[in-house]
Every structure is written in structure tokens, then in C-alpha cells.
Amino acid sequence: MSASKKTDGMAMAHARKAWGETLPDYIFALARVVDVTSYQKCARAVGYSGAALSLVLKRKYTGDYSAIEQAVTGALMKHEVTCPVDGVIRADRCSVNQRSKMSTTNPRAIRLWRACRSGCPNSRIGDK
């Protein structure tokens, strides 16, 4: 964490106030990207709303932090996971796959839906 408090933008300041000086890596990355771009641009990259990301940085989000972490590490930190259907994919793609609705017309989508709910080690479904 090379950014000093003097050069922190608003997002980083909110994160440090809520999370303390030792930020989790994904929170640090999220705050840094928001400060350089905007909540909306970061939201498009991560796949969550700007409001949700703001709540995460302020540690007031009531949803699943592990799902946000997975989306941020994939989209902003290029973390990869092994999907039982698609092979090696970015963690944010995995997060999108898990949130997808069941499709009865696409065989790949059916396999993904089942894999995400059948013990895949990357799945956050049911974790809260």
C-alpha cells in the first residue's frame, strides 16, 4: 500500500476511515481505482452499482462481501480461478456466472448453473 494519506482521494479516505489503516487488498484496489476514475466507471468494470461500491468502501454494505471481493479481484486485480465448465477464467467472470439466471435453452448456461450450485470451490452461492 504505497499511497500515503496526504495523496488519498475521497474513496481511499472513506475506506481508511471505515476499514482502518491496513486495508484488505481488494478494498485498497477498489478505492484506488475509484479515486483515479469514478464510482460509475469502476462499477461497470466490477459488475456492481456505484452505490454498492460506495457502501463497501464505507463498510456499510449489507450484501455478500465475498462476492464483491471476487468481482473486484477479477476485474481490477486480474485474479483467475478454475471453472469446472470454462477452465481458467477471471474471478469477476466467475462472479457473473454465479449470479446468472437459469437458462433452459443454452446447454453451456445449464452446465454453469449446475456447477455453481454443486460444490464448485469458487462458488459463493449460499455464503453469507
Number of domains: 2
- Residue fraction in strands: 5-15%
Fraction of residues in helix: 40-55%
Give the structural class.
Answer: mainly alpha
Q: Helix count, per DSSP? A: 7
Low-confidence stretches: none
* Quaternary structure annotation: single chain
Report a brief summary of the structure.
The protein is about 55% helix and about 5% strand. The chain has helices spanning about 10-20, 25-35, 40-45, 50-55, 65-75, 90-100, 105-115; strands at about 80-85, 85-90.
Structure notes:
The protein has 128 residues and is mostly helical. It has two domains: 8-75, no CATH class; 80-116, no CATH class. Helix content is 53%, strand content 6%. The protein contains seven helices and two strands; from the N terminus they run αααααββαα. A hairpin with a 3-residue loop joins β1 (80-83) and β2 (87-90). The model has no long low-confidence stretch (mean pLDDT 91).
